[in-house]
Amino acid sequence: MLKNHQFFNHFNKNMNSPLLHGFKLLHFCNHTRCSRFISSCLLYPLCLVWFLLSSYSIAHAQNDNGILNRKISVELNDVTIGNALTLIGQKAGCTFVYSNSLLKSERRISASYSSESLARILKELLGDAANGIMAEGSQITIRTPGTGTVAGTVSTSDGKPAGYVTVSIRGIKSVQVNPAGEFVIKNVPSGTHNLTASFIGLETQRKEVVVRTDATTSVSFVLRESRQQLQEVIITSKTGKGYVEDQPSSSLRLATPVMLTPQNITVITSSIIQDQQLLTTSDIAKNISGVTNTIPYASASTGFSIRGTQSSNNRLRNGMPVSTLMGYGIAQEDMSYVESVEFIKGPAGFMLAQGEPGGMYNVVTKKPLNNYHASAGFTLGSYNLYRSTVDIGGPLSKKLYYRLNVMGQNAGTHIDYGKNNRLSIAPVIRYDLDDRTSLTAEFNLDMVGLLGTNNIVPTRNQQPLKRSFSVADPALGVTKLRNNYGYLNLRHRLNDNWQVTAQTGMIVSKWKGQDLYALNSLVDAAGMLPRRLRYIDFNDNLITGQVFLNGKGLTGAIEHTILAGIDGGSLNTKGKHADVNNILPINVDQPAYGLSRGIDTLINESSLHYGYANLPATAGVPSRTSWQAVMLQDDIKLLPWLQLTIGGRYTYYSNGSDASPKKDKVFTPRAGLVISPLENTSVYALYDQSFLQQGGRAFSGEEFKPLTGDNIEFGVKREWLGRALFTQISVFRITKNNLLTNDPDNIGYSVQTGQVRSTGFETDILGRLSANFSVVANYSYINAKVTKDNNADLIGTRQVNPVHTFNVWLRYKVESGLLQGVGAALGTSYYADRYITTVKKQTSDPQRKLPDFKSTDAAIYYSKGSFSTALNVDNIGNTYNYSANNFNGNRGAEGEFYIKSLPGRNYRLSVAVKF
Fold first, then answer.
1. CB 479, CB 598: distance < 8 Å
2. Can you tell me the mean pLDDT for 470-479?
3. Do residues 333 and 380 both lie within one domain?
4. Domain final position from 87, 109, 142
5. Cross-strand partners of 712
6. Is 566 domain-assigned?
7. What is the Cα–Cα distance from 240 to 246, expressed in whole angstroms?
8. Based on the number of CB atoms within 10 Å of its own CB, is 391 exposed (0-12), middle (13-18) or buried (19 or more)?
9. Inter-residue contact 765 to 49 (CB < 8 Å)
10. Whole-Å CA distances, 466 to 414, 420, 876, 904
């Protein structure tokens, strides 16, 4: 066994700086008193995984004995590029052939290398020009990276041409095979490409070809089924999508890959959504570190906690904000029309600066494809789940493409008489005006009928009631949500380096219904629980728009990647609301339902009106929220391995009634640094900021300043195994200042002296360990607590979130042999130290915690040709898990939790067919 200092020496010698940096981050967290859980259960296994992957990468690199892998030491002191290549050639025993204009050989540099590979040195000195290197013996030619052509034929096993098949190289170009079975793809970057040909009803075919500059590479595919069963041929690079997406969607505005973005960004791809049979956005949380559901409402709202802050309203769809004032009016997106979900940790001024500083998420909807496709699926499951989906699309002409997703769902919930019925219709069209300009129009209709989703009930003697107990009554009918979402996007490529995007979105939503709930009620000695009747009718109209410019340019030898944009929006909310307390108590031991058929007489809907008169002051409707903002960001490539990011956003924000809105003007800065010491590895540092408007006035009459959230973050990212596996580690500190606290000198007023700080550590692993084996794993440690308050009893209390979260999902698929097409998956989730808000009777009362959350999930799969089926089982152990928002200690230590039970063991069985 290596002793501690010997281990670090060995680690430093073999893993290079970014990997050692990642280990030190882990080691740092290990020395915090609250992190014993990491050390005992997760720290060293994660270190071992990191070390093994690094060892594999290093060993793989060292197996290549070409001249470019030769290691040399050289000192370059204020010399020209031309002289530098001469010195390097002498050290490495080689000669260079190049164009002076290509390399700008008179440019002067200074650098020092000790036992570094020739390939690494040339990459740092030459930047993108190094992509054009060709080595033959001891001669190294540097030329502009060229392009070639891929051409070939597609035919059926009977020798007939397979016309109308789509052939594409992902990220480059797609073409359709002509009726003669021929295709040509021009301007393909030179290099090696792994060609994957996948056809419905056929075994997957893989071919590797080398595309040479100014040459044509031929490839042919012979299909083993009849022409009617053919759909498409996909030629991809070695990075196939799977569980890893290294390029954020265009709606995230960034033109920089995830690896070079100084921020923790995790993309949940369609493959993960499909493998786990996720139905709505809230189901995704277990796939991202530092993200948990607090009080989930089926299909209605997300309730996300991100890095210890309640970030439910930091929500985007296709880059457009979709949050509403109340937070409930917009139904969760249904996964039937979702392509991916991007989670951005911390403030992200390039998207939206107003909101909680923990982070935000962006839902990317499915867009038209260039090939004809059609599929249908059916799912049945626990709680009378019946769900059907259809996805069809393709070209209507050479320039017009469409896609249509339709989903219908009839389902109950684990609550007695619960309902979660949904209908989603999502048509979208794209018109290519020319090869530089496209216009996309999209519409999402979501109709939801819910019963029992607000089922927050008290414990009795601190023991939860029966998991299926419902405080609601089916006689009241369902609460209805209807969302109409329209989206228009115009994208124009000015030239090879600059692109402008303009888009607008609009949401018209309605939320109407009655429900019974029991918040702040207690079960009496006879087992009776008082209920409250609520009537609500809210209408939201939200319109947003944005224009942004992406581009690249040079200032001397320094490369700039520019993002500049303006955006704004307006939200109008109005509502009717009424509440009746302590009606129709229900026996929690022998509940009777259907007795409230005449309960609607307690509230006269016709007497209600839109306005403040019948609303609690905190509801704040009718109201108008609007904002206008301008932002600018520059990714400055100072050296091939060093990037500086500088940006800022200025926002004018107005909220409140039209007569007296609260207005704020806020500038939020952003600065980041990315170091890339190894290929496919980056180390980053980030500072960014957000704000959140706060209404009201101090005793002096002065308006309150916005709450500000400051984020300091460090991280390490790496891609492994040919970019099939992605890992990232980050540590952060988020400080929320200017929080409102009670004014000790003026009862009933507030002062801005509060502060909450969240510090933590996160790690994520996504991707393929082999062609058969995929993984999604994450761990987070989040220490979020009050650090300043006028009430000394509140200092040190924690925010509502688990301190430790751990999730893993492992999937294996058999690719050949007798069991080809069979797959299996196993996952588990564990959340520890789940603190909740505590109302104390005495100052010495401790802050309460919920029991640890534990769940184990599994799945089995089978696919052959156009047919696939899957069975997913969640919470196999049938553990009684629940969420809670607070512990009411008004009765002292014997107070009660107010909880929302979560489903027990449940399954989903799906069948899908592609046509």
1. no
2. 89
3. no
4. 142
5. 687, 733
6. yes
7. 10
8. buried
9. yes
10. 11, 20, 19, 11
Q: Answer yes or no: do 380 and 289 share one domain.
A: no
Same domain, 156 and 270: no
What's the confidence (pLDDT) of residue 225?
Answer: 54
543 versus 43: which is more confidently predicted? Answer: 543
CA-based end-to-end distance of the chain: 58
Tens of pLDDT, residues 36-67: 443 444 444 444 444 444 444 433 433 334 78
- Cβ-based neighbour number of residue 195 at 10 Å: 21
Query: Distance between CA 227 and CA 219 in Å, rounded?
Result: 19
Q: What is the mean pLDDT of residues 355-384?
A: 93
Output the pLDDT for position 96: 85
Q: In 823-854, which positions are buried (b, 16+ CB within 10 angstroms) versus exposed (e)?
A: bebebbbbbbbbbbbbebeeeebebbbbeebe
- Compute how many other C-beta atoms are within 10 angstroms of the C-beta atom of residue 192: 10
**Burial class of residue 770 in the structure, from the number of CB atoms within 10 Å of its CB (0-12 exposed, 13-18 middle, 19+ buried):** exposed
My answer on whether 324 and 459 are in the same domain is: no
- 562 and 512 in a common domain: yes
Q: State how far the Cα of 510 lies from the Cα of 217, in Å rounded to an integer.
A: 57
Distances (CA, A) of 501 to 365, 400, 868: 17, 19, 38
Choosing from 329, 364, 399, the residue where a domain stops is 364
Give the residue from 630, 632, 610, 629 showing the smallest Cα distance to 620.
610
Residue 35 in 3-state DSSP? helix
Give the 3-state secondary structure of residue 22: helix
Is the same domain home to 221 and 131?
no
CATH code, 508: 2.40.170.20
Task: Assess whether 310 and 376 both reside in one domain.
Answer: no
- How confident is the model at residue 2, as a pLDDT? 41
If one compares 569 and 602, the residue with the highest pLDDT of the two is 569
Q: What is the pLDDT of residues 2-16, one digit of tens each?
A: 444 443 344 344 434
Q: What pLDDT digit, counting tens, does each position of 413-430 carry?
A: 999 999 999 999 999 999
The per-residue pLDDT for range 795-840, each reduced to its tens digit, is 888 888 899 999 999 999 998 889 999 999 999 999 999 988 887 7
CATH code at position 286: 2.170.130.10
The answer to whether position 81 is within a domain reads yes
Whether residue 7 contacts residue 24, with contact meaning beta carbons closer than 8 Å, is answered with no
Number of domain units in the chain: 4
Residues 717 and 841 in one domain: yes
The amino acid at residue 589 is D
For residue 486, the model assigns a pLDDT of: 95
Q: What CA–CA distance (Å, rounded) separates 564 from 350?
A: 9
DSSP E strands: which ranges in 30-181?
71-80, 95-97, 108-117, 133-136, 139-142, 147-156, 166-169, 173-176
Q: How far apart are CA 461 and CA 470, in angstroms?
A: 19
Tokens of 247: 């390029």
Does residue 214 belong to any structural domain of this protein? yes
d(Cα 898, Cα 461) in Å, to the nearest integer?
12
> What local confidence, expressed as pLDDT, does residue 686 receive?
97
The pLDDT tens digits for 134-191 are: 787 788 888 766 778 888 887 777 677 776 666 777 656 666 677 677 878 887 777 6
The whole-number pLDDT of residue 3 equals 41
Partner residues linked to 882 by β-bridges: 901
Residues in the chain: 915
This prediction's pTM: 0.74
- The CATH number given to whatever domain includes residue 98 is 3.55.50.30
**Stretch among 47-61, 561-575, 787-801 having the lowest mean pLDDT:** 47-61
Distance separating alpha carbons of residues 344 and 355, to the nearest angstrom: 13
**100 by DSSP, 3-state: which?**
helix
The CATH number of residue 220's host domain is 2.60.40.1120
What is the distance of C-alpha 341 from the center of its chain? 4
Give the range of the structural domain holding residue 174, as residue numbers without chain letter. Answer: 147-225
In a domain, 32, yes or no: no
Would you state the pLDDT for residue 159?
A: 72
